[in-house]
TrEMBL record:
<dbReference type="InterPro" id="IPR024964">
    <property type="entry name" value="CTLH/CRA"/>
</dbReference>
<dbReference type="InterPro" id="IPR043136">
    <property type="entry name" value="B30.2/SPRY_sf"/>
</dbReference>
<dbReference type="InterPro" id="IPR001870">
    <property type="entry name" value="B30.2/SPRY"/>
</dbReference>
<feature type="compositionally biased region" description="Polar residues">
    <location>
        <begin position="7"/>
        <end position="24"/>
    </location>
</feature>
<feature type="compositionally biased region" description="Polar residues">
    <location>
        <begin position="403"/>
        <end position="413"/>
    </location>
</feature>
<dbReference type="InterPro" id="IPR006594">
    <property type="entry name" value="LisH"/>
</dbReference>
<feature type="region of interest" description="Disordered">
    <location>
        <begin position="1"/>
        <end position="28"/>
    </location>
</feature>
<comment type="similarity">
    <text>Belongs to the RANBP9/10 family.</text>
</comment>
<dbReference type="Pfam" id="PF00622">
    <property type="entry name" value="SPRY"/>
</dbReference>
<dbReference type="InterPro" id="IPR050618">
    <property type="entry name" value="Ubq-SigPath_Reg"/>
</dbReference>
<feature type="domain" description="B30.2/SPRY">
    <location>
        <begin position="32"/>
        <end position="231"/>
    </location>
</feature>
<feature type="domain" description="CTLH">
    <location>
        <begin position="297"/>
        <end position="354"/>
    </location>
</feature>
<feature type="compositionally biased region" description="Low complexity">
    <location>
        <begin position="425"/>
        <end position="438"/>
    </location>
</feature>
<dbReference type="Pfam" id="PF10607">
    <property type="entry name" value="CTLH"/>
</dbReference>
<dbReference type="InterPro" id="IPR003877">
    <property type="entry name" value="SPRY_dom"/>
</dbReference>
<feature type="region of interest" description="Disordered">
    <location>
        <begin position="354"/>
        <end position="450"/>
    </location>
</feature>
<dbReference type="InterPro" id="IPR006595">
    <property type="entry name" value="CTLH_C"/>
</dbReference>
Length: 450
């Protein structure tokens, strides 16, 4: 049965069995890994608390990290009990430990509890959250990006050594919980099942916070519940109440009277941004809007896009410098990427020219795009010796039956403006290839371009 549970745990979240290198060297590390795998079974109570968390990407905190604690602490009982073993002479003897993983942003509301097994000599304990880089030689809340509720004075500390009065003190046999509301970025605490209210607002959403507990004097012992068993505080009611508040705020949100105008502007800006010139003009005419960008500018951007997709990088750079003379001077990364692409096109062309060509196969490689200048529009006689841009059958037919131009561009390019006559594009922005190979001796292409 143990083997089946381990197998289920591995399939559910392989990262649940991850241990640090320092843990791997400790006695019992393998057993701890097996116990953690058991927690990842289908009936995992922690997973039920946070159904929207994908633990293959963002694992949940499940135990204290033996490799992320100060050396005055001893972690036992499946890494859920913390005991202080330092001298405890002053604040410099404080020690903290962090959980094995940070709190995932998709939790909505995250919560854990500690039970004070013994307050020790003085009961200088703290429970809270901290970032990975915060010192472990301090109680939570004393340093930047650290938050903590302390047992001896009931103060809450937020990135400072000066606390503010928050709640009652706590001691042996008390159960204290810490909750992190990722919806409104607030921290709250509970004591023996009672919500003490919000301790801090405006936690930066960019912070990656770990559950943290700190001890400072000899004899202090705490047990931890990350959700392996029912909490003393009814966190489910808190989660449901928060969900109802969020839903109510959405349903009660009043759209402005100009909502139709706002939506029309949004659609128009999308069309303009992607270069759908004709569509944008028609849409703006229908909705009585003024075009944000003139047609000439949209067309220019569209032509530059086509040049890049067809591998004509030199021409694209030249056109950008003519129309937007300061763009490449102020955006060096863009110029660098274009130059790199131009170099790739040149190498591809050299490789193509060195490869032997079969007499029955006159097409150039679809991965090659010659970086020469665009020629003027071909004459009708020239078109007779070019490949058709699109083929729908493998049977040979005369070139007169095939359209001489195509407006088909893949990869998000606009369909409003036609491509250059007689130029085949494979629709891939990855290689941006074009095919201008002439058909020799009047022969027809042997099959559709793949």
């Amino acid at each position: 049965m143990m083997e089946n549970m381990l197998a289920t745990g591995n399939n559910t979240r392989s990262s649940g069995a991850m241990i640090s290198s320092s843990q791997a060297d400790e006695p019992g590390a393998m057993m701890e890994a097996e116990e953690r795998d058991e927690l990842n079974s289908i009936d995992d109570p922690i997973k039920k608390l946070y159904p929207f968390v994908d633990e293959t990407k963002t694992p949940l905190p499940r135990f204290w990290n033996n490799g992320d604690k100060y050396n005055y602490l001893i972690v036992t009982n499946q890494n859920l009990r913390v005991t202080y073993r330092g001298a405890g002479k002053n604040h410099k003897d404080a020690a903290a430990v962090r959980a094995n993983f940070p709190i995932p942003a998709t939790c909505g509301i995250y919560y854990f509890e500690i039970t004070i097994v013994s307050k020790g000599r003085d009961g200088y304990m703290g429970i809270g959250l901290s970032e990975k880089e915060v010192s472990l030689n301090r109680l939570p809340g004393w340093d930047r990006n650290s938050y903590g509720y302390h047992a001896d004075d009931g103060n809450f500390f937020s990135s400072s050594g000066n606390g503010t009065q928050y709640g009652p003190t706590f001691t042996t046999n008390d159960v204290v919980g810490c909750g992190y509301n990722l919806i409104d970025n607030s921290i709250f605490y509970t004591k023996n099942g009672q919500n003490l209210g919000v301790a801090f607002h405006d936690v930066p959403s960019t912070e990656e916070l770990y559950p943290t507990v700190g001890l400072q004097t000899p004899g202090e012992i705490v047990d931890t519940n990350f959700g392996q068993k029912p909490f003393v505080f009814n966190i489910q009611d808190e989660i449901k109440a928060t969900e109802m508040r969020v839903q109510a705020s959405i349903f009660n949100y009043q759209l402005p009277a100009t909502k139709t105008e706002w939506m029309n502007k949004l659609v128009s800006s999308y069309l303009v941004h992607h270069g759908f010139c004709s569509t944008a003009e028609s849409f703006n005419l229908t909705t009585n809007q003024r075009t944000v960008e003139d047609t000439a500018s949209m067309t220019n951007r569209q032509q530059i896009q086509k040049l890049v997709l067809n591998g004509h990088i030199a021409e694209a750079i030249e056109m950008v410098e003519q129309i937007y003379p300061m763009l490449l001077h102020t955006n060096k990364p863009l110029l660098f990427m274009l130059k790199c692409r131009q170099f790739i096109e040149m190498l591809a062309q050299v490789t193509q020219e060195r490869e032997p060509r079969s007499s029955s196969h006159h097409r150039s490689s679809p991965t090659c795009s010659p970086p020469y200048k665009l020629s003027k529009r071909p004459s009708p006689n020239d078109r007779e010796h070019r490949l058709s841009p699109r083929r729908t059958t493998r049977s040979p037919r005369s070139h007169e039956d095939t359209p001489s131009s195509s407006g088909h561009i893949s990869n998000g390019a606009s369909h409003d403006e036609p491509m250059e006559d007689g130029v085949y594009t494979n629709g891939s922005a990855a290689n941006g290839s074009s095919n201008n190979t002439a058909v020799k001796n009047g022969s027809q292409p042997d099959e559709e371009m793949g």
